[in-house]
Amino acid sequence: MVATELQSLATSNHTPSKQLCIIATNLLAVNLAFITGVSNPSSELKPEINDFAQRKSRIAQSEKLYGDLISVCYI
Description:
Blueprint lengths: L1 H10 L4 H21 L12 H26 L1
């Protein structure tokens, strides 16, 4: 959802406060993904393989979102 909203900045005419809200929401989503990040599967907790794959997928998605966010902010 946040990625779609970020992409809307290029095509829609949002107010500056709405633009800032969209950017801040995306930044928080990226930070949350990195905080919950990928744990080491060989750690004491030994998370389930599916859990590890989901976390890894979240990190990959957040990396793309981070690149998109930087691109939007640079313009």
